[in-house]
Amino acid sequence: MTNWHSITKEEALRELDSALTGLTKKEAAKRQRKYGFNLLETKKKTPLFLRFISQFKDFMILTLIFAALVSFFVSFLHGELDFVEPAIIILIITLNAVLGVLQESKAEKSLEALQKMSAPAALVMREGVIENIDAKELVPGDIIYLETGHFVPADARLLTAVNLKIDEASLTGESHPIEKDSDTVLKENILPAERINMVAATGIVTYGRGTAMVTATGMHTEVGHIARLIMEDETPMTPLQKRLAATGKVLGIAALIICIIIFLIGILKNRPIFEMFMTAVSLAVAAIPEGLPAIVTIMLSLGVQRMAKKNAVIRKLPAVETLGSATVICSDKTGTLTQNKMTVTEICSSKGKEAPDGSTGKLLLTLASLCNDAILQTSGKRKHQTVSATGEPTENALIMAAYQVGLNKPQLDLLHPRIYEIPFDSARKQMTTIHRLPDGGYRQITKGAFDILLSECTNVYRGNRDTPITHTLREQLIRLNEGMTAKALRVIAVAYKDYSADSSFPARLKNNNGTQKDRTARLEQGLTLAGLIGMIDPPRPEVREAVLTCQMAGITPVMITGDHVSTACAIAKELGILTKESSMAELRAAEITSGHSTYNSSIPQAMTGAELSQITQEELVERIKNYRVFARVSPEHKVRIVKALQARGEVVAMTGDGVNDAPALKAADIGCAMGITGTDVAKNAADMILTDDNFATIVAAVKEGRGIYDNIKKAVHFLLSCNIGEILTIFVAIIFGLPSPLIAVQLLWVNLVTDSLPAISLGVDPPDKDIMKKKPNSPDKGMFSDGLTVKIITEGILIGSLALLAFIIGIRFFDSAALPGDLTRNSRTVELAALTTPYIGRTMAFAVLSLSQLFHSFNMRSEHSITKIGLFTNIKLVLSFIVCAFLQVIVISVKPLADIFKVVPLTPAQWSIVLVLSFLPIVVVELQKSKRNK
Asked: Which residue windows are transmembrane per the record (predicted)?
């Protein structure tokens, strides 16, 4: 085994037969067949058979199986081998198990598909071209590019390292990032944590950049050797599922108590013990919504699939529920609210506006292109050649603007090679590079935020000479900058400093005296300001409507950006986020004039990061309701903003794309990472990934989240009201001394028909048209708030009453000749006849109980009338109704099936009564809706 850290990078390239231009695609495919995918082994999936068997672990299912066996042995002891009822029970249990396995498989496949969509990516050189591929496609010998914010996708030997620091805490336990050096050759027996010329899979690039050659993938990496399966995501139960499971237990205990009472009452009324036992057990199984967690899982997974098609990839299922409760969406401006297509529109020197192709304009664009990490790429033939830039949007705009005036970045880099750099970071808000000039001298170029860079400049460029910055000139430059930002331009200041051809200068750069911060501070001072470059990133056309939708839905959109406050306010005003831009400085001036505080003004305001730093967290919590724009903020500010909003009871969605956004994404109730511009760290910290980096996608996801939550409530409402109806049907009949309206096998059939297809079909119901006109779901409200408990009980009473009414009509008017004696008499002969003989009353009750629940499923769809929302807007529910109703009719009408379920065929007159009674839930609930909506 090669010790890659103990050989030079040139030897490492030869060892793996690789080159700086990367592998060919043919060679990469060959190596992938040899080494396999760059993936850690995951836990083996549970075999299908074991998953099927696990469906029978439920206590109530085991009880039912026991009941089936008891039924068989009792009939055997009586000399009657009655296989029918036990066989039906086992068949229904098996069908339930099959449904459970199918639901689990569907949910699992949905989550696997989403994990693939959010899988880590890698920048790799193949055949001299940089490609963005799935990290799992990497093979030993690949040349990879490492940039700030990226995960290290495999173990690799460094080839270049520019101020590169890697956080390898997940592997080594080191709490601080490790500074890397590609030129170092180490001893063979050195520990992994000390291998500064290597990078290890799962590390995070926290600073700088570099290139490396992959030396190990998958289980051959250091992480693989110690079986650290940190890439594997477990899917825990969501809070909603936990609440429903707890609710199910409560309902289960209540149902068991009722069933025991029914059983005891039946015994006291001299009913056959075995029949009452079977009825009680079947009723318990029918009453307990044991399938509810599985139905919720399938609803969530289907909803997540729909959201993925709309560019919102949900990484954590609880985010679906939280989305429906979101009250504030904190969004970055660039790329999310805007198109992320920065274009240079204005160039200014200290004298004013300059032409891009003029001498000053070209100087500025040359400097901005050199102090730039974007890559200019050309493709196609000469006549049809296209030019594009790959990199950060601002830097892309600068090199594209330079290209349009004849300045080609690759050529500029050859003429002025870079020898040193200090990468951009959010704290300094600037970037510095140093280049060797053709005459042997050196030029330092610094570009960044105007307000920070101006404080580091002592001179300003004026044609062929540098002029000291006086107070008047400084004020002039500030007004120039404000004039550009007032036009919603993003302004980049560019400065430089020249050094003579001193051979000791490069050595001084590598001098380790002092901290990195001190060395940076020494370099970035005494500069000459060359000028300002203004660019604009236009708002996305769909965002304004999305902002309006948010406001109608009771959701407050908030812009949080690193841009200048004037730029941020101009864009916010255009999008409707801000109606009147004002800063805290203006508010303070108003306080002095008026003599009282204006912080509680109802007009939303803007705040800068500097202003934010001057107030305490308690003050921010008090005043944050007045602000809609936060500009020039740091990542630490974002966390403060999120926590202040949460302290006021808001449910916060937060967008982010950088490494430093990860704390804010984690702190938010819903972290939304950018799929295009987002770093791997941000994506890993987020609950949701926006694959199109679009604010409108968040709003669409909120709508979908609300719809999913509503659909789950519909399914719970439907199942529990039906289950209560089934319990009351049996309970009331036994209490009043009537024969049992339904036998065990009939109860199980009703449960199977109503708890499967209709409930799942409600899960795919499209959201109400006015769902975004309602207030967000309050996280403090339980599942059964807003009168849902009362509705469930009253509707359950209605369904049970209709089934009992059908039963009484049947035995009074159609079974009087068939049944001996007066049914009001407590006669054991009558009871036995009622329990063992198929008759019309029981058949009608059986039909009404099932069909009324199928009709009732349409009531669940909306608070509005069925005629208003449209019968066929959920075609799956219509098909479920048709299929289940057809099965119910077949069971009653086909003689062999009727014998199994102990029912008799009904006449047209009897079917008419059944249909009228079954349809009544629609009529009653429609009347209630019309009364409520008046």
From this structure: 59-77, 83-102, 250-268, 280-302, 715-736, 742-764, 792-814, 834-856, 877-897, 909-927
